[in-house]
Amino acid sequence: MSNVFIVGAGSIGTALAQLCSMNMDNIFIWGRAQHVIDSINIDRINCDYFPEAHLSNNITATNSFDFMPSCDIVFICVPSHAVRTVSRSIKPHTSPESTIVCLAKGIEYPPLKRMSTVVQEELGGDKLVVMSGPNFADEIVCSKRTGTTLASTDRESLVQSKAAVECDKFVVQTSTDVVGVELGGVLKNVYSMAMGICDGLGVNENAYHFVFSQAVKEMYKIILSEGGEPESIFLSSGIGDLSLTASSNKSRNRTLGLLYGKSILSNGEGTNVIQEGRKSITAVKGLCDERGLDTPLIEFTYNVIRENQNSYGAFKNLWQRLGGR
Questions:
Q1: Of the residues 127, 162, 188, 285, which is catalytic?
Q2: SS3 string of 13-75?
Q3: 268-313: pLDDT as tens digits
Q4: Domains of the chain: residue spans and CATH
């Protein structure tokens, strides 16, 4: 029997459960909300996220970790701020033979730690994989064509996790560059905020895409500075994820930047999305300063979102810097 355990019954966890249900025998998905668990087990839907998507019969929702020891793969699908707590909670239930796949795209700060580092610190072991790419959950759950990147230094874990998710409409790239793939998922959030600010300002298309090329250039520079491989920027977890998140109206980070660009938000306001965005740009700005990297677009985003600078004035300064003036 091939079993999978998914930690997190949100949008991406539910979509992943549906995806894995085509390849694996039993899918267990853990959540906190009893009404969501009941809706999955009884009505075969996730009433909070996908009330119109029928879920496969081999998916079982639970609020217990009891099924975890019998599972070959454990997917961690919780927000980045919850990864350490969740990893600590599941440690007594994980098997040393289980592959752990982390989908969280974020950082722990301060100090700056990637999610794979957090999971490694709590769970140990070498069978750790990160998954990142242009992966909107609402498209995955409906079996629309999607591609992703899996990265691990353990090749057996890569093969195993790829077999769990890959199908005709879901293609998988693999990489051994955990640093580069994971940083792509972190950095695209920050640069999507930058592009959202430009959208909020009504920046014309020529200028917008000139700035976008700067985002790619800076991502490449940061990934290399942290020991990532040059080719990782060209994976779906690099330019692919950046392009989607920076341009789609479904992107929360782009929307956050958009609201700052329109001066609808100020520094004192804070939902979870805003707080996460502010933390991310602060951490990345600190990293760039520490490494002595010239990243004008990071500074532009930081000045608008953290320093509450006027977005139009900040963009004028950015434009002058990009022009070498």
A1: 188
A2: HHHHHHHHCCCCCEEEEECCCHHHHHHHHHHCCECCCECCCCCCCCEEEECCCCCHHHCCEEE
A3: 555 667 777 788 899 999 999 999 999 999 999 999 999 999 999 9
A4: 3-176 (3.40.50.720), 179-322 (1.10.1040.10)
